TrEMBL record:
It is found in: Cytoplasm. SUPFAM superfamilies: Nucleotidylyl transferase. The keyword Iron-sulfur does not apply. It comes from Paractinoplanes abujensis. It comes from the Bacteria. Gene3D superfamilies: HUPs (3.40.50.620), Pantoate-beta-alanine ligase, C-terminal domain (3.30.1300.10). One of its GO terms (molecular function) is pantoate-beta-alanine ligase activity. The gene is panC. (R)-pantoate binds at residues 58, 151. This is Pantothenate synthetase. The active site is at residue 34. The lineage of its organism: Bacteria, Bacillati, Actinomycetota, Actinomycetes, Micromonosporales.
Amino acid sequence: MKVIHTRGELAREVEAVPGAVAVVMTMGALHEGHRRLMREARQRSAFVVVTIFVNPLQFGPNEDFEKYPRTLEADVEACRAEGVAVVFAPGRDEVYPTGAPSITMNAGPLGEILEGASRAGHFAGMLTVVQKLLMLTRADVAFFGEKDFQQLALIRRMVHDLELGVEIVGVPTVREVDGLAMSSRNRYLSPEERRAALALSRALREGAVHTEASAVLAAARKILADEPSVRVDYLALTGADLGDAPEAGPARLLVAARVGATRLIDNVPLTLERAV
Ligand SMILES: Nc1ncnc2c1ncn2[C@@H]1O[C@H](COP(=O)(O)OP(=O)(O)OP(=O)(O)O)[C@@H](O)[C@H]1O
Ligand SMILES: CC(C)(CO)[C@@H](O)C(=O)[O-]
Ligand code: BAL
């Protein structure tokens, strides 16, 4: 496995690949969720590139860019254990050689709701770096987690609308045994916050037992209300494509909340028999 830091080295690595290039993009601090993505990628291709880059463009001024965990040595070992071919861990100037770009992606209406309503500019910054990394890695197929469901939906939309010719594969959320969705930000949680944070996955699980929209929301709300240290940002029931009118059939229940200073998100699929 090679660990490289420049776009020149990356270009040399990917140009000689005979088969498909599969890419897993991450911000590092790798956990079992990331490793599941790598394993899925390895099933599809002998040549997997993992990118590790904490993208400043997708963080708001009051967010955790500075304190985001950076654990490159351990991350490299995790990638090695998963049979990854190349780890691309560029510095900021390598990704943005001309400084902050004046032209960025527009995430459209789907970028304004849910996460987009709380994190102005987040999805434009995310899509901009994803597009860059797809180009730099010359990816044929890219793997993203359903834990960041709106992100996955937006990447699919970008690839479709701009005809980028890359296959996007979504991978179900990997959870701790007690249900908490794995996330690099979980390491910010104190033991008490870690316990309170279980309300998110519990609320989704209890909600998904029901098949009628108002019962889904009522059950989830009750669980969240019983945990006062969890400050809910949104609890939303949408269509499976995040369209905001859930019809009968496949749907998605999503939650975002602050636990202490940490903002967490989670979501589950469910099936509605009736919208109301
Ligand atoms: N629990 C998980 N299960 C499946 N995929 C995941 C999980 N957590 C993250 N991923 C996916 O890994 C990729 C990289 O995500 P990222 O590095 O931001 O990790 P993260 O744990 O989501 O971090 P953060 O806590 O900052 O949101 C994304 O496609 C993301 O959806
Ligand atoms: C896709 C991504 C690597 C882009 O910075 C990031 O948003 C993430 O880790 O989910
Ligand atoms: N895991 C999604 C990237 C972010 O929160 O910035």
